[in-house]
From TrEMBL:
Origin species: Patella caerulea (Rayed Mediterranean limpet)
A Gene Ontology cellular-component term: extracellular space
Taxonomic classification: Eukaryota, Metazoa, Spiralia, Lophotrochozoa, Mollusca
Signal peptide: 1-22
Gene3D superfamilies hit by this protein: Gamma Fibrinogen, chain A, domain 1 (3.90.215.10)
Keyword Signal annotated: yes
Protein's UniProt name: Fibrinogen C-terminal domain-containing protein
One Pfam family here: Fibrinogen_C
Length: 352
């Protein structure tokens, strides 16, 4: 593709799908009448091509911050993108009959979706990002990169998702976490129904599950790590992290089958059993929807939670019950555990 084709393609994208932005760009162009029939020298014109109108010419200029002004030769439909500006009195211009000149005015940017213009930058809210707050973040880490720093509920639209939805984001520190599971309160039980695991549940800040449908849309890009932190001691707070890469699950037609998860031992803080790799291929289960290919074991009821189980359940139990004091304790099926540890976590946190 030539540069011009690329610009035209971008213009088509912007003008067909982002009409409002295009209008904002157009409004920024000013036409000083007394500069009619004047153009910059060819040295300052970096791109010349045919365009349908002066507005189209200006819209293409608006896509490139190095373009400061345009000249448009009306009869020939010729567009000149300029690195420079004509002087205020147009004195440095070269005469070119039948042409008009537009320069980029002082930005009069309009922020969308309730964004606020501060120092000519749109400060966005509620999960919106972009120069004009024109779109939703794809996950919480994008929100962190876009300078969101407050933990809370945000609207996101993962790549490929057909609908946006709300998730809990931890943004006070980088790189920004999309919360999958939080369980820090022993009186909260994660032994819940299929419907609750599918839709998600919220027991306050110490207890929540994102919901399998949302997890499916988030996991499709396989670009987010599946991080598990097991809390070892309360004061001082010590937790150890396990990192899985390329995490992906299937959609509801497969009962959210675990498709991919690769343990990265180098990035993990403890030497754990690779619990997830032996579960690849299994569907998610809850006590009222046991999808274990080996029938009759009743893993969700025995383990007291929802997870991917295969055959003899799993070598970890992230959604089990929490024991009040944690510490050395093994062999209790319905408590949170991760083999081969001989300690029971005081809490568990999973995020993408
Ligand atoms: C913007 O603010 C208005 C008024 O408070 C509200 O009704 C609307 O939902 C907000 N829009 C977004 C995208 O947050
Ligand atoms: C799940 O994905 C498969 C394959 O992409 C598709 O055929 C099916 O319709 C999807 N099911 C749902 C419920 O979206
Ligand atoms: C991790 O644990 C396994 C099994 O207990 C052991 O064979 C391996 O050497 C350990 N790796 C490290 C890096 O400690
Ligand atoms: C989980 O709930 C089911 C249904 O109420 C029950 O049969 C099972 O014993 C419970 N499991 C645990 C570990 O509490």
């Amino acid at each position: 593709m030539s540069t011009y084709n690329v610009l035209q393609f971008l213009l088509a994208l912007y003008c067909c799908f982002r009409i409002i932005i295009c209008q904002q760009f157009h409004e920024n162009f000013i036409r000083p009448d007394f500069c009619t029939d004047k153009v910059l020298t060819s040295l300052e014109s970096y791109l010349t091509f045919e365009a349908g109108s002066a507005i189209q010419c200006a819209a293409i200029c608006s896509l490139d911050e190095n373009c400061l002004s345009v000249s448009f030769k009306l009869k020939e439909g010729k567009c000149f993108l300029n690195f420079g500006l004509l002087a205020d009195d147009c004195g440095n211009g070269v005469t070119l009959a039948d042409s008009v000149y537009y320069k980029k005015g002082n930005a009069v940017k309009t922020c969308m979706n309730n964004g606020t213009l501060i120092n000519n930058d749109c400060v966005c809210y509620g999960g919106y990002v972009g120069t004009y707050c024109e779109r939703l973040m794809t996950d919480c880490s994008e929100g962190y990169r876009e300078m969101y720093r407050t933990n809370g509920l945000y609207e996101i639209l993962p790549i490929g998702a057909t609908q946006s939805f709300t998730v809990t984001c931890i943004l006070r520190y980088g790189p920004g976490r999309t919360v999958i599971l939080r369980h820090f309160q022993p009186r909260h039980k994660m032994n819940r129904t299929w419907a609750e695991y599918q839709d998600g549940f919220d027991l306050g800040i110490t207890g929540r599950w994102i919901g399998l449908e949302k997890l499916y849309w988030l996991s499709r890009s396989k670009t987010l790590d599946f991080n598990i932190a097991l809390e070892k001691t309360k004061s001082p707070f010590v937790s150890v992290k396990i990192v899985y890469e390329n995490f992906e699950i299937g959609n509801s037609s497969t009962n959210y089958q675990l498709l991919s998860a690769q343990l990265n031992r180098a990035r993990s803080e403890i030497n754990v059993t690779d619990c997830l790799s032996s579960l690849i291929g299994s569907s998610f289960s809850s006590y009222d929807m046991d999808n274990n290919p080996v029938q009759g074991l009743g893993c969700p009821a025995q383990y007291g939670g929802g997870w991917w189980y295969n055959g003899a359940c799993a070598q970890c139990n992230p959604t089990g019950n929490l024991h009040q004091s944690g510490g050395a304790r093994t062999g209790v099926d319905d408590e949170v555990f991760w083999e081969p540890f001989d300690w029971t976590p005081l809490g568990i946190n999973i995020w993408l």
